[in-house]
Design goal:
802 residues, Rossmann fold, Helicase, Ruva Protein, domain 3, elongated
Length: 802
């Protein structure tokens, strides 16, 4: 890539020409001159050494001609010449592959590709073990032949068994003691060397097939990562202008958003080696092993950087490295969205506008930490004793000159050692806990750029759905995919891939190989809410749960505009009897008072509805809703200035207790109990409860209609809830019969029977009404009247009971 082309790519910043995959190449990548001749030089040198031995020991002492030495060398060392001929043919083969498309295609696709396909039919375990046994056999055969030649005896017996004994016996006694001493040192060194291995994988160019085109929904971050790769390929484009190449990137965000996939794409796109560091590579039992691993890692990185002009190293789950201070990154210039009062605050610029000392004091107060508390990166901190410090030193420490002669002989002769080369090492860190990273690691020079890989936008989710649905057969339209992207506001790339795969499993289970809309919605419900239990309610309890959830649904439909109903269900899932889930219709960043008021109304609807429909009685199932309503009200009045006061309760603990506040004997916060916030929250909830009760009283028929649909179908979509309330045809439920006055009276009678059963703790003795089928839906034109069924369960009129 020329400098002009590189600069143009940086200026456009929107286009990126991917390197072709290995499977897409038409010719072999040209080899360097050294790679072509290094084995030829080695073999020629070995044969020349053999010729010199023959001349000096056999021919020249008896006055023979040099031609005799050549003849004997050709005879005795013919195997070296054979290897030399094979190497020449191999390099000639590579050269032709670099020039001819047909020749390259024949060998790579037909010969080697066919062999790979045949070996791929073998069991993996058998293939790996057979390959290992074959390699061991070749090694032992070569070693025994070599030792047999040296000792001029039988290769198998003396070559392998007698050679070590002869070698030890030939050493003087002092040398034997020295060998024993060195052997002990080698034991300890070998132990630590063995413990320091593992957890570090090196991928050369073309080892990975992942490309930037495989990363969806993160286009802005992807463009910045591409820019760093361009700087790594052409560092002079920024260095000759007085800048420096960024050496570190941090990708942070929720799990599954594509951080590791983006790093894999970097490995696939770059022409530089890619080193992957396992999250637990530096977590060791023995002190000092982690430091050895860091040193070993950077020796490898420097070697690769010098050889290939650059290297990329990726630390996955970087929070496992630990940190040395409780504030982590809060004292630095980077902000990860830390808020000033609560983790739920939608904060504006975090605490960046405050003085550092003030910011640190507030953060310590919120974390409940004193100034002297420190979280070490030692044992238990994730990095091992000194491991984090060794890593920080290697990332930007002083680089010593390379080589023994350069460092010592030149200095002994009064010459200045040559400076080390510029090691082009790009560090990429990924974590979903950036606050746990040490602030020394986050400083410029170590990590120069920090990018949030957050939840993709709606357009990003659509692109991700398109990408994964293209891999399977489906009949979803563009409108369906757009709706699906709207229904999954916090979906990540990993969750989208998993949901599409689950939809495929559902389709295959039903005997189909084409995914439809119903498969996708079922997969979404299964992944988001879990698998329903098979247990059934008694009929009076089923009706009570349906009323509870119907109150939530009607309140949500009538009051909330920033959220729409996704689904409502009364199917049991563990200790959850039912729920109404909602999703935002659009990606919204800020929150408003009117929206939080609506959230409180929806939460209080269960309590207001149960008291309204069950003569002032209510179940313990409203406890979770009350916790949610209380939390929202407390945040509104105490933190978000959405009440009659503007002071934030988030600083009251700092002003009174200096970090944590005093606590009562039962563990509660006395500062909170003695404040007036709890009184204001209670008054707010009582006010909103009256509003909610009036809302449900005015929409009583809609509550009974939604409850009836839930008892009938167990689970209904948000579109069906809307169809029932508005009285029109829905995807699953026809809401028109629910507007019939006669059917409304029957639902009231059934509710009265359920209420009486609730009072008596008995079964409902009245069957649940079934709406009449109208029009084409009615079998044989029988669409009048209402159908009854025993045991309170509905059934279609054309289906006979068992």
């Amino acid at each position: 890539m020329s400098k002009q082309r590189t600069r143009t790519s940086i200026q456009r910043d929107t286009t990126h020409v991917s390197r072709p995959r290995l499977s897409e190449r038409e010719r072999r990548v040209p080899a360097t001159f050294w790679d072509r001749i290094k084995f030829v030089i080695l073999l020629l040198g070995l044969w020349a050494c053999g010729l010199a031995i023959v001349w000096t020991t056999t021919v020249n002492p008896i006055g023979g001609p040099f031609s005799d030495a050549l003849r004997i060398a050709f005879r005795d060392y013919a195997w070296i010449l054979v290897l030399l001929g094979i190497e020449v043919l191999r390099q000639l083969h590579f050269l032709i592959e670099e020039q001819s498309k047909a020749y390259y295609r024949f060998w790579q696709k037909t010969v080697f590709g066919g062999a790979s396909r045949r070996l791929g039919a073998m069991d993996d375990w058998t293939r790996f073990r057979a390959a290992r046994a074959f390699k061991a056999f070749i090694f032992l055969l070569a070693l025994s032949t070599f030792l047999g030649r040296v000792f001029k005896t039988d290769p198998v017996w003396f070559g392998l068994l007698d050679a070590p004994g002869r070698l030890v016996a030939a050493l003087p006694f002092v040398f034997q003691l020295t060998f024993g001493f060195l052997f002990i040192i080698i034991q300890f060194g070998g132990l630590f060397w063995f413990l320091s291995r593992g957890g570090i994988d090196t991928y050369m160019p073309d080892d990975l097939e992942t490309r930037f085109s495989d990363v969806k929904g993160q286009d802005p971050v992807l463009e910045r990562v591409q820019e760093n790769m361009i700087f790594l390929d052409d560092p002079e484009s920024i260095e000759e202008r007085g800048g420096y190449v960024p050496g570190g990137l941090l990708l942070w965000g929720p799990p599954g958003t594509g951080k590791t996939l983006m790093a894999q794409a970097v490995a696939g796109e770059t022409a530089k080696p890619f080193v992957f560091v396992d999250p637990g590579a530096f977590v060791q039992m023995f002190m000092g092993v982690g430091i050895l691993k860091v040193k070993s890692l950077y020796r490898k990185l420097r070697k690769l950087a010098v050889r290939y002009g650059g290297v990329i190293v990726f630390f996955d789950e970087a929070d496992s490295l630990g940190n040395r201070g409780s504030l982590g990154s809060q004292g630095g210039g980077w902000s990860f969205g830390a808020s000033s009062g609560s983790a739920l605050d939608p904060g504006c610029n975090g605490l960046a506008y405050l003085a550092p000392a003030t910011r640190d004091a507030i953060v310590r107060s919120e974390m409940g930490a004193t100034k002297d508390q420190v979280i070490m990166g030692g044992f238990g901190g994730g990095g091992g004793m000194g491991t984090l410090q060794a890593l920080l030193s290697e990332m930007s420490g002083l680089k010593k000159p390379r080589g023994f002669i350069n460092r010592y002989v030149r200095r002994l002769l009064g010459m200045k050692p040559k400076p080390p080369p510029k090691y082009r090492i790009l560090h990429i860190f990924a974590t979903n806990m950036p606050q746990s990273l040490d602030e020394a690691m986050l400083r410029p020079g170590r990590i120069d750029r920090i990018y949030k890989v957050g939840y993709p936008s709606k357009e990003g989710r659509k692109a991700t759905y398109d990408y994964y649905l293209a891999k399977v057969r489906h009949d979803l339209t563009a409108a369906d995919i757009d709706k699906l992207a709207t229904m999954t506001p916090y979906a990540t790339g990993a969750s989208i891939q998993d949901m599409v795969n689950e939809a495929l499993v559902i389709a295959i289970r039903d005997g189909r190989d084409v995914i439809n809309w119903a498969d996708v919605t079922r997969a979404k419900q299964l992944k988001e809410h879990g698998l329903p239990d098979d247990s059934e309610y008694v009929n009076r309890e089923r009706h009570a749960v349906a009323i509870h959830e119907a109150c939530h649904a009607v309140a949500a439909y009538r009051t909330r505009r920033h959220m729409v109903i996704d689904m409502a269900t009364i199917e049991r899932r563990g200790d959850i009897g039912g729920f109404v889930s909602s999703i935002p219709p659009e990606d919204q960043f800020v929150q408003w008072r009117s929206e939080r008021d609506a959230d409180i109304i929806v939460s209080l609807a269960s309590l207001a509805g149960e008291r309204l429909f069950f003569d002032g009685d209510n179940s313990a199932g409203v406890g979770g809703d009350m916790r949610g309503a209380t939390a929202v009200a407390a945040l509104m009045l105490g933190f978000w200035a959405m009440g009659d006061t503007v002071a934030s309760h988030g600083v009251s603990k700092l002003a009174i207790g200096g970090g944590g506040g005093a606590s009562a004997e039962d563990g509660t916060d006395r500062n909170f109990l003695e404040s007036d916030l709890v009184k204001r929250v209670e008054a707010k909830l009582q006010e909103m409860l009256e509003v909610t009760t009036q809302l449900l009283r005015e929409n009583r028929n809609e509550v009974l209609a939604v409850a009836h649909a839930l008892e009938t179908h167990r689970t209904v979509s948000g579109d069906d809830v809307e169809a029932i309330i508005e009285g029109r045809q829905g995807p699953l439920v026809d809401g028109r019969p629910y507007k019939d006055d006669g059917f409304t009276e029957e639902m009231e009678r059934y509710h009265e029977a359920a209420l009486e059963a609730h009072r008596q703790h008995a079964r409902v003795d009245l069957s649940m009404p079934v709406p009449a089928l109208t029009g084409a839906a009615a079998p044989n034109g029988q669409g009048n009247g209402h159908v009854r069924l025993q045991d309170g369960l509905p059934r279609r009129p054309d289906v006979e009971p068992d």
